[in-house]
Write a structure and sequence with these properties.
It comes from Kineothrix sedimenti. The chain is mainly alpha-helical and about 350 residues long. It is built from 21 helices and no strands. The chain has 3 domains: about 130 residues, Tetratricopeptide repeat domain (Serine Threonine Protein Phosphatase 5, Tetratricopeptide repeat, Alpha Horseshoe); about 70 residues; about 70 residues, Alpha Horseshoe (Serine Threonine Protein Phosphatase 5, Tetratricopeptide repeat). The radius of gyration is 22 Å and the shape is globular. The two termini are about 25 Å apart.
Amino acid sequence: MKERKRIFQIILVGAVLCCLLSGCGQKDKNASVKEGMAAVEALDYNTALQCFEKAMVDGEDLRLLYRGQGLAYMGLTMYEEAVDSFEKALSHSNGQVDEIDYDINYYLATAYYKLGETDNSIEAYNSIIALLPKDKAAYYLRGCLRIGTDFDKARADFDKAISLDKEDYTQLIDIYLVLEENGYKEAGQEYLQAALESGSKSMTDYEQGRMYFYLKDYDNARNYLEKARKTAGYEAVLLLGKTYEELGDNNYAVSVYNSFIADDQTNAKVYNQLGLCKMDMGAYEEALTAFQAGMNIENNDMMQTLKFNEIVTYEYLGDYKKAAVLLDSYLSTYPDDGAAKREYTFLQTR
């Protein structure tokens, strides 16, 4: 589901702070914790767990140690163990609420969510809100959890998140997507329409184009995004290309992506969308080239998506053996991907 991806995506943003949190002022004392966090960032979770075990033997900071251990367990999809580690991390608080306490509660909420324990996940967000009542992300994420059972409470959370930052249009669109996914499309459109009516004069061409795109008014979306194309960066290019795809003009969409790539070969998202467009056109070899070009960009945040799309493209090309080998490697790195597991089952029959 779209909102699940978004929840996990937002929660994992905190992982980039791991080394900073683990090494602040205690580089020597917490050497093994630092090594463990480096292994977590490298997706080498088993090595990370070994580092945290050594850190425990060496008497390093238990709160940082259990936090890192929880992250490693999450990477291994061992969510019960992750919950236990995060709870231990919280229990070793020094009594003074600080940034790491919010951070641990976010991860705890995600671990509970992955276990299907929605009520416990909501309680974790309740704790965050109690500590930081103006944390818009906590309200948004709690709303995402509530939407399946209590629309009124979910909407109240979304309203609060919006009120805390009325010009966060990315959050607004995320809320629309959650509502649409759960059968409340009209309620989501009301948010977008209200934003256009109240803030259109201060919105950029790109922001207005985004609103019209998600309102499915593709003609207006195209007009505003064309004006934003040269000034708003790759985001406008991506959305403009998608707009042309929705309008049925894949050839022009491809020209939009290629025009950007001619000047900038460092954006994996544009390569990925070019690949998807080529796949839709049935040009699988060209799609594969685009995905692999994106994968060659160092330190990009699209690697998992690109690798999965590469596998699917090999399937369309009929090279099931190559797809199976790549998928086996993919699942060893991303074991929690349900779609990939289904693909694996499919490939076993080929």
